[in-house]
Specification:
The protein is α/β, with parallel strands linked by helices and about 400 residues long. The protein has 3 domains: about 10-75, PUA domain (Archaeosine Trna-guanine Transglycosylase, Chain: A, domain 4, Roll); about 80-190, 2-Layer Sandwich (Transcription Regulator spoIIAA), CATH 3.30.750.80; about 205-395, Rossmann fold (3-Layer(aba) Sandwich), CATH 3.40.50. Helices cover about 25% and strands about 30% of the residues. The strands form 4 sheets. It has a 7-stranded mixed β-sheet with strand order 16-15-14-17-18-20-19, sandwiched between helices. Strand 7 (about 105-110) and strand 8 (about 120-125) form a beta hairpin. The N and C termini lie far apart (about 80 Å).
Length: about 400
């Protein structure tokens, strides 16, 4: 007769204790000072302080430098199905009122920031996409699937996971609940329709995090020639067109992305403003194209992919952001607006803004800063290390 192993108990360094009390969601392998036995992926690990008092409990991951992803801290709690059900309901409650009647694409669970460390849940129309970043979550997928089906109306749930984790029972893009799917999902954002490749696309299928900035760009677009650099599948382009843009030029190096942009454009032909707006898709390296371009634009959006995927890339990324801003300012028409964005977590908001301001200084132009924006409310940030999205709006005087 098998017996259950004793509870996995850990003690951590004084510095890690302090961080846990301050709300940090991770325990790194180098911070563990004592451990009563080996742990398995997804096992609950209870962390005690130096006086043997409960400190926190989380998911153990022996395959990751982040050895424990914290679920709960403070007073002891029973981490069971009821706990997870209440936890999901709390995350959903925080989203009430964020999406309008014309929006059915939304982040429902935002990882560590909703105390679901290493897990996000996005909604696209009637499809849910669950993405995990730790093998610790694989054993919980049946439970999470049941809870999502109970609390969120859906046709299917699709699993996505990061490239560095594997499981013999699950694969990336697997439908873990509901109807089969052999094509991208169509969803609506502020009344504009988009395709989302939920099976194989980047992130969970679309960049939902830029929704608020797309809405702002629409407000500036009337009667403007608009340049969208690093356009990807055309989010900013379509919002600008609906906002009454005189024309839109979209630049991206990926033919596949531009093909998807065209599909999204055709999907919205029923909108008179979009249908009437002249649109050019230009396949080119954005850095090289910007250096050679001479046409002036009253509205420019520069939203590159992450330029610093590692800490070692940070200095080069800061230089690249400055270079992009200099190019954008050179092409900006009088009274025009330049939007520069960054999604690099390794470059702080302060460093990014400083790089853009350095570009403004180098340009010699008189520029007014209109606004600096961050994360949309469904992508809210409670852990400083996870703050990645920022944008600055500049207007030439």
């Amino acid at each position: 007769m098998s017996t259950r192993p004793p509870t996995l108990r850990l003690r951590v360094s004084p510095a890690a204790e302090t961080k846990l009390r301050q709300g940090h969601p991770w325990v790194f392998d180098g911070s563990i000072r004592e451990q009563n036995r080996d742990g398995k992926p997804g096992e609950l690990a209870v962390i005690f302080d130096k006086q043997d008092r409960f400190l926190a409990v989380g998911l153990y991951d022996p395959e990751s430098p982040i050895r424990v992803r914290v679920l709960h801290r403070g007073k002891p709690a029973k981490i069971d199905e009821n706990w997870f059900a209440e936890h999901l309901a709390k995350s959903l409650t925080l989203r009430i009122g964020i999406a309008d009647a014309d929006t059915d694409g939304l982040r429902l669970v935002n990882g560590e920031n909703d105390a679901w460390p290493g897990l996000v849940l996005d909604r696209y129309n009637d499809t849910l996409v669950l993405k995990i970043y730790s093998s610790a979550w694989f054993s919980y997928l049946p439970l999470i699937t049941n809870l999502a089906n109970a609390q969120i109306p859906n046709r299917r749930i699709i699993l996505r996971h990061s490239r560095n984790i594997r499981d013999q029972h699950y694969h990336d893009g697997q439908i873990i609940s509901g109807a089969a799917l052999d094509r991208p999902i169509v969803f609506s954002e502020s009344g504009i329709k988009f395709y989302a490749d939920v099976l194989k696309g980047q992130k969970t299928g679309f960049f939902l995090d830029q929704r608020d900035n797309r809405r702002k760009v629409e407000q500036f677009a009337a009667n403007c020639k608009v340049l969208n650099v690093f356009s990807f599948t055309g989010g900013f382009s379509l919002y600008a067109a609906r906002g009454g843009a005189q024309s839109v030029d979209s630049i991206d190096i990926s033919k596949h992305a531009l093909d998807e942009l065209q599909r999204n454009w055709e999907l919205n032909r029923e909108n008179p403003a979009i249908d009437a707006c002249p649109h050019r898709e230009i396949q080119a390296d954005a850095f090289a194209w910007l250096e050679q371009a001479t046409e002036k634009y009253p509205l420019i959006v520069i939203d590159p992919p992450s330029l610093a995927k590692r800490e070692a890339d940070r200095a080069a990324a800061i230089g690249a952001y400055k270079k992009l801003a200099i190019s954008g300012l050179r092409l900006l028409a009088p009274k025009g607006i330049l939007v520069c964005a960054s999604c690099s977590a390794h470059v702080s908001t302060g460093e990014f803004v400083q790089a853009v301001r350095a570009a403004v200084s180098a340009s010699g132009k008189k520029i007014r800063e209109l606004e600096i924006t961050g994360h949309a409310p469904d992508h809210h940030v409670t852990v400083p290390e996870l703050q990645y999205l920022k944008a600055i709006y500049l207007q030439q005087q």
